[in-house]
Amino acid sequence: MKAHENAQCIEILPIVLLGIRTAVKEDIKASCVELVYGITLQLPNDINETSIIPPCDNIFVDRLRNTTRELNPVATCAHDLTELWSVDAIGIRDPVEIKSRQVADEEAVEFFRKTIKRNQDKRYEVYLPWKSEYPELESNKELVTKRLMSATKTLIRSGHLSEYVEVLNKWIREGIIEVVDEDKNKGYYLPHHPATTSHHLENVPDVRKETARQLQKSFYVDNCITSLETREEVAKFISEDKELMSAAKFDLRGWITSDKNVEETQKRYIPILGLSWNSENDELSCNSAIKISEENITKRTLLSIAQRIYDPIRFTSPTTLIPKIILQKTWEKINWDDVLPPDICNEFLAWYKHVNLLKDCKIPRRLIANPFKDCQISLHCFSDASKVFYAACISLRAKYNGKISIQLAANKPRLSPIKEITISRLELLRALIIILPDDRWT
Q1: Please, which residues have CB within 8 angstroms of residue 362's CB and are 6 or more apart in sequence?
Q2: How many helices (H) and strands (E) does the chain have?
């Protein structure tokens, strides 16, 4: 069964119920529709509050909704699309969503502060923040298994696998975790995740405060990525942060820099947050190696390709925006698994044949070649709008010893809505991107 084609009913996911009960409470925003095969109940696809539904219906609706989402390709694609558009989102979210997340975050931080302590080995311990009220969880064994395989590969590359296994074996001996019966598919599994270092870095001697602040803003998961002005600062930073982190049994090693005089390991190409960093030339590049069959291209293929090129700093957006524009053209006219019309297919293939050239697009890691403190810095913003998309970019202008250099610092593109609106309104939207706070650009 597919979603209703009426634009006003796109958010409704039909669910078939067999039985004699046809009355529906109005406060759950549902409706009964009589079709040729019987009565159907239509529920909002994003219904979250099930406490207003009678208990017997509550359990049924929850389970049926989850099962339908797993089987329904439209719902699956909707999730993928949410992930796709969130990369280009300009930071506008529902106030209720923002508030609820803030409250949950504040409660988690407060719980962390109350329960954290250090054991005899100077390692940090903190209780798991269990929720007092929670819905019945479906089995996540398949998802956690994939994460385990990915984590294992990372541990093998970093040389920490044996240490990691020893920690798990110790927890088994101490009764903290237990081996799961392979025959039991039901249950919720806790995936492994790295420990945070923020608390440790907030409690360091004053003489190490500057290094601690630099570390605190430079960590992403288990990688430390930072930039310093001089060779002396780099050497001092490496020495002090090793001392700081070893005090809490965190081992930072495998340092790689663009300065060969302080480099500890010889490695030219390093993956950083989905990009490739050439430490020799100090340049970033994207992985654009995409292989697809050029026959029977569908809307689902378009969505897959549009998500495959990862560029968090959006330097390649003039290229990566094209498949999104083509995907938008297919929005209301073509089903997910229908072969694309020749004109749209040819437009996509023309883009696909040249997309691998992105690997030759080199992005300078440094915005300016000279120290910031010695330059006169100014930001220059530009934005524009058209019927197809609107965008904004920010460039950094630096003046040093009479010489001027300009480097693109960030850009943010956004597709225009399918429903045609005036250029004047689009001009307001492109102006909105420019005035958004700094954190909305990252």
Answers
A1: 278, 281, 283, 284, 285
A2: 12, 14
